[in-house]
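User: Hello, can you help with two protein structures?

Assistant: Certainly.
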Amino acid sequence: MNILIADDDVATRELVGEILAGDGHEITLAEDGEDALEKFKRSWHDIVFSDILMPKMNGIELLAAVKGISSDTQFVIMTGHASVDSSIQALKMGALDYIFKPFEDLNIITEAVNRAEANLSGIRQKQALYATLSRQNGVLDTLNIKFLDLATLDGLTGLFSRRFAEGLLDEEFDRATNHTCELSVLFMDLDHFKFFNDTHGHQAGDEILHILAQIMTEAVRESDTLARWGGEEFIVICPDTNQEDACMLAERIGKSVAGHQFPNAAQQPLGIVSLSIGVASRSNRTDSPEKLLLHADEAMYCAKNNGRNRVVLYGGSEQVNHVAAPRRAIEKY
């Protein structure tokens, strides 16, 4: 994420910048509101952290200017307890959140970014949905958007729903059959998720699913469709994709998840949050979309039974581990 931090207090902005840079984000520092606005105009940012009281241009004025340029940018106010009224005004103007300084717990900075990332993920999923429907139907302006969201998006993660994915898989399978195209499916299950919920609670589990959805959204390609199948299960529908390319995609997703620093991940049985992924392709003895999905599901269970945190190709002979130093093992399935 590209994050802009505006605060006239040098110590505060450098502290926030150091924390977020350590989390892997690209950081830009600004010494006041005017400086922040100029830097935002030169280079668009996903998230802005801003103090309320600054010389030249205060945080409220900066918020209005940023939202005028990009309504999707997530804006977090940093404020003292004396400026609560101004912070509430900022929320009414479109700010995502406000946090108090001096910071009693530095984790609130990372938590604010996590909420902003989840919100951005939902926005981008909806934008992709609207673009897809517009391209396919040409009637987006006549649809009831609220009803559409309920029918096609998962309420917790913002990903496509199982109902939407089932219909799309049928369509893509028919298209692949009629035009002799490739089609692959990834079936993914979050490893030891029940253990995580039992240990840390369902609210923490929901947070993991939010973060996971964002990581996977960034890992898949524009042509892929990522959906929550149910609970901790997800699928990816991959049109015009053979089994080799599908396995490469699955490996990229698995490595992205296993390499992410999830909250409480070290307490998981594998020491990380990870996925077991099954891959199946239409060309491999598959004569229906239901059977294609079943093959991917069976391959996923093979990955579970062989240690988790890996990819298994249905009908293939190779499974790939997603650990710090990946190794390759031969297995017939």
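That covers the first. Now for the second protein you mentioned:
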Amino acid sequence: MSDVDLRSIDPATRARHLGNPEGPVGIAIADSIAVLNRRLNEVAFALLAPSSGDRILEIGCGNGKLVPDLLRCASGPTYDGLDISETMKAEAIKANPATVQAGTTRFHVGSSDAMPFADGTFDRALVINVIYFWADPLAHLREIARALRAKGRLVLASVTARYAATMPFTQHGFRIHEGTAIRDLLTEAGFPEVRLSVERHMAQMILGDTHDREFNMLVAEK
């Protein structure tokens, strides 16, 4: 259990570690986010709808503690998680020892606008709460489209602008996009079919308060 008191962390520090978790504070925040986002991830996994044998890419995989939930959604998928944080790569490997050892789960450090994967490598891609940290989202989305095979699917989740306005840390460097703007970016990036919906659910936040959370959920098909 972490000795970090999350209640003592100011919004700017929280925002920095959400974008690039490092050290004990980053680990503590990532652990809390894995619990907080379980419902959101369940919705995203259902929309992703992986099939048997699919190869799945997740951008911003964090500590990897929700990866087993994703792998249970289909028979025999393989998984690659990419994160900007070396700390998160180490945590994700620790959280998934058996599948890492078997070679069916792999974790990488890097940026999603320049990925070390060949064209058409993946069947499915997942991006949850990451777009806020991209200075040029179109470049990242085009790179994801490149790495997906024909008929591949991307699921992208992000907070709505209305919900983001209720969270102090989003005022510190977060780039908030309306769902329709993300839909247009996905179309421009090479996804001709994009569906937009909104997911709402109640959740207990890191500081103990309860929020009615609201997310844009986008399903993009090549």
